[in-house]
Amino acid sequence: MSHIKNQYWLKKIVNKLGLYIDNISRTFTSCCRIVLMSSFSKAIKAKEMSEFKQSSKCCILGNGPSLVNAFRDDEVMLKECDVFCMNMFCMYEGFTTIKPTFYFLVDPDYFKPYNEFLEKELNNLIYKLNNDVTWKMYLMVPNTAPKGNLFSELRNPNIEIRYLNITAVDGFKGFRHLIYKYRMGMPKCQTVINCALTTAINMQYE
Length: 206
Fold this sequence. Notes:
Elements: H1 2-37, H2 40-47, E1 58-60, H3 65-72, E2 82-86, H4 95-98, E3 102-104, H5 116-132, E4 137-142, H6 149-153, E5 159-164, H7 173-181, H8 192-202
Parallel strand pairs: 1-2, 2-3, 3-4, 4-5
């Protein structure tokens, strides 16, 4: 019985040690990514974003047929909310009625399109943003976004570009939360919606 008990505790110690070593490795890797990819000056400006809130609540809108159906069925309640939108939302017919406060572009294809179709989409997006946005709107883009047509051709004075450190951060819980708090990184943003959610949490919406 004592032999079985010793094996149990030994296995538990080995598992905890393995987890600890894994966290050390993940934390070290995250530190390297932060040094190479994050910007402290952009992080300071990102913390200022809370000052641009017009409401204590927000609504994050994705794209696709489900969103159109949700508006048709009155499932989306935007009253007294700051609206977050993303990607090609400006092509939606209700864009100028909704007047989103924050517009997220994270996919590298929006900054450096690699084929004719994506180039056309980018040109359409730039045209809509330049001509249709008559209200104050913040365009949220990654700190690492390559400087391309979006930055050189976007001339609407109503749109202010704000940068986000979207560096993927992993490792010890305390380390992660400290980095998130000071906007030097985020949980891995597999989609632009994840990026918008993280930003909304950092801005302390209800």
